[in-house]
Batch of 2 targets.
Target 1
Amino acid sequence: MFYYGGMTIDLASAGNAEARQAALAALGQQTRELIDAVVLTEVPEDEITSVTAELAALTGRLRALRRTSPQPFEIGPDGTPRHVGNAVAGPVNPHALPLIIESTPERTVRAELAFRPSHEGPPGWVHGGVTAMIMDHLLGHAAAVAGSAGMTGTLSVRYRRPVPYGEPLLATAEHTRSEGRKSWVDGRIALPDGTVLVEATGLFITPSDWVGRFDPA
Ligand SMILES: CCCCCCCC(=O)SCCNC(=O)CCNC(=O)[C@H](O)C(C)(C)COP(=O)(O)OP(=O)(O)OC[C@H]1O[C@@H](n2cnc3c(N)ncnc32)[C@H](O)[C@@H]1OP(=O)(O)O
């Protein structure tokens, strides 16, 4: 639903929802490229000022029709909840990598990823809060794949080595045990040669009203 000039418009039913999602995903990707270009640019100051004015105009065009409610969960191919606007995995959210997660037959999860220049924390390396965010989401996905979808209760991260951006990395996670609505998950981000850079353990708690709602496929 979108709110515009006193009207509520259901754009999904008015047009082709799939084409709209593809268009939004393309906008999200272009915006990611813009963000990295902003971070890395060395163009002259008058060009920066000119581009800023153009961006202000583009921002105004997008604000002409605005969503007023959160996007709902969808059920992914592996039966887990997800939504296109998610800050880690949502294709239409420029903030997201987006993380593309695969489930294995053993109900573990893996994601090939490369951080971007805009994720920089210490010069030349990825910000620890960004890697923690990736771990949070991936571990949550592993809980869901194991049939224990929940919200993060606690997340513990051990930073073993600095994480580079612009290089291929592999993130993996697996559910280790559950007690009632509480589930524990381990995960890590590693170099392609297996060198572990970041390790994490999370406790995920299934809210009472989620019980039985997101059973894996
Ligand atoms: C596939 C998609 C993956 C997505 C992953 C996304 C990960 C996220 O970012 S989620 C966002 C961040 N997390 C949050 O916002 C959570 C906010 N907190 C909450 O909503 C609630 O506190 C919630 C749901 C965690 C627990 O609420 P509720 O179900 O009422 O818990 P409650 O009944 O009090 O406690 C249940 C058990 O969990 C324990 N518990 C509750 N909260 C915590 C906590 N934060 N840490 C440790 N244990 C906890 C309780 O002690 C209790 O244990 P026991 O059964 O042994 O007595």
Note: Confidence is low (pLDDT under 50) at residues 1-9.
Target 2
Amino acid sequence: MDHFANRSGSLHAEDVPLTAIAEAVGTPVYVYSVATMKRHAEVMLDAVAGCGSGEPLVAYAVKANPNGAVLRVLQGCGLGADVVSIGEYRRARAAGIAPERIVFSGVGKTAEEMAEALAGGVLQFNAESIEEARMLSAIADAQGKSAPIGFRINPDVEAGTHAKITTGTADNKFGIPAAEALGAYAEAERLPGLKVQGITVHIGSQLVSIAPLEAAFRRLGELIGALRAQGSDIRLADLGGGLGVPHGADQPQPALPEAYGAMVRRVTADWNCRLVFEPGRLIVGNAGVLLTRVVRVKPGASHPWLIVDAGMNDLMRPALYDAWHGIEAVTPRGAKATVNVVGPVCESGDTFAMAREMDAVEAGDLVLFRTAGAYGATMANGYNSRPLTPEVLVDGDRWALVRKRIDLSDCAEVDPDWR
Ligand SMILES: Cc1ncc(COP(=O)(O)O)c(C=O)c1O
Ligand SMILES: N[C@@H](CCCC[NH3+])C(=O)O
């Protein structure tokens, strides 16, 4: 069963007034479905229900899509937040997510970020080094507080995803090696201002198989036993995110959340820990599309160039990771064509697809990129002085602009006019 194929919730031209949105807001524009997000949140909550001791926390990885309206919808679904910067922390709080439902991850938290999050409250700081734990200890001690902390373990497991979104091998900057964990926890126990309570792991994103996750979780399980024997009261295990989403019928089909939940239940049965999950892409990836208009079709040596008004600055994933996104006409004309789909940016990397067979389209037609709800708008930038892409939320038959197009052509920089 494909949880992402429910036509009533998915963003399909027949269900969503994409043409009206494009006319009112202009293109390119990100469009997100509230119904799909809610359904994905429910699928994840159901998949992990009853896992671990106490109520599991699904802490949505804000980095996937930090739009405030999206966060408010997910808060309403009962999700917490996994944040990696004070900006994400503030957004989560502004959306009404309670401090005790927020975990603070990230390899480079600054003293200022830790101080503000500690003052505001978090469920746990996921520390990625003993150096970070020492800094947190000093900050907490100065505030007269006890900072809840867990270490992120780097289990040295190959996630089987793209190298640039693999995070759990020895060559990656993330976490502390499993072999150094006992020493790190022992030191943290001696530091003032820390409440050593947890452990966490996250090995990468868009994972198709759950076997690497299982291997990583088993390593965590071994460590929990060893840490308890050493005197650390580990009560919270944060299993990270990373579950992949389907991108198309002929693309690799990731394991379903139910299979993931069953594996977690099996592996963690005797951990006696509360569990936290940090899904990002799973919740919002297939809840969004990037809507763009064909600027022109130009002849090419192998295939015609389909030049759209979205560029690599609007959706970076194909340029960064050679990521595959479904591309469709909003109003198909019936015929098919094989084309190279590119944007207007002055880089050859500004390519969304080469030799793609898709709906035949003409200049002025609307085209959508699928699976753009995660790591789309949030990674957009203003390269080539292009505006930051606006975002629209659709709920049933109503829709609203939830981020305006941000114009970067007005020379907002401070300019001393030196010549
Ligand atoms: C620590 C951490 N948690 C959660 C996530 C969310 O990952 P995903 O969107 O693949 O579920 C990420 C991103 O890979 C991450 O770095
Ligand atoms: N930005 C990546 C995912 C990285 C997740 C963050 N650790 C993507 O678009 O696939």
Note: The chain has eleven helices and 18 strands.
